[in-house]
């Protein structure tokens, strides 16, 4: 992995902020060797433009207050379907779920290393389990 400790800390802060605002499918990608212009991507999704705005606001706030960094550039805020926060050393992509499928950043960077974001594992809802599966009442 080529990500510096500073970038890893900011990436994890951004991931935690996105998670707190209920972002889904949060992925960290080590793109440094592949792109050369940034070290990492954080990619996450949300089902509505309002939620995308809330995620972006929280990510910006947390990165600024905890690390003193501000984005060099913001793109897509007006569209509400894909907002990009470019910090130089990392780029945060917050995409509408449909945009994420359409543009396929995950597919484009499938060959790069994923970054451990330190987020708790997401468990499947109990409603999707078979009776007795995963419970003590079997």
Offer a few descriptive terms:
alpha+beta, 5 helices, 6 strands, 138 residues, globular
Brief summary of the model shown:
The chain is an alpha+beta fold and 138 residues long. Helix content is 36%, strand content 23%. The chain contains five helices and six strands, in the order H-E-H-E-H-E-E-E-H-H-E.
Structure overview:
- The protein has 138 residues and is α+β, with helices and mostly antiparallel strands.
- Helix content is 36%, strand content 23%.
- It has five helices and six strands, in the order αβαβαβββααβ.
- The protein has helices spanning 5-20, 32-35, 49-67, 97-103, 105-108; strands at residues 24-30, 40-46, 73-75, 82-86, 90-96, 113-115.
- It has a six-stranded mixed β-sheet with strand order 3-4-5-2-1-6.
- The model is unreliable at 123-138 (pLDDT under 50).
Quickly give the structural class. Answer: alpha+beta
Taken in chain order, the helices and strands follow as HEHEHEEEHHE
Query: How many beta-strand elements?
Result: 6
Radius of gyration of CA atoms, rounded to a whole number: 16 Å
The spatial strand order of the largest sheet comes to 3-4-5-2-1-6
Span from first to last CA? 44 Å
Residue stretches low in confidence (pLDDT < 50, at least 5 long) are: 123-138
Mean pLDDT: 89
The fraction of residues in strands falls at: 15-25%
Q: What's the total helix number? A: 5
Q: Which percent bin holds the helix content?
A: 25-40%
Silhouette: globular
Largest sheet: 6 strands, mixed
How is the topology of this model organized?
Layout: H1 5-20, E1 24-30, H2 32-35, E2 40-46, H3 49-67, E3 73-75, E4 82-86, E5 90-96, H4 97-103, H5 105-108, E6 113-115
Parallel strand pairs: 2-5
Antiparallel strand pairs: 1-2, 1-6, 3-4, 4-5
Helix pairs in contact: 1-3
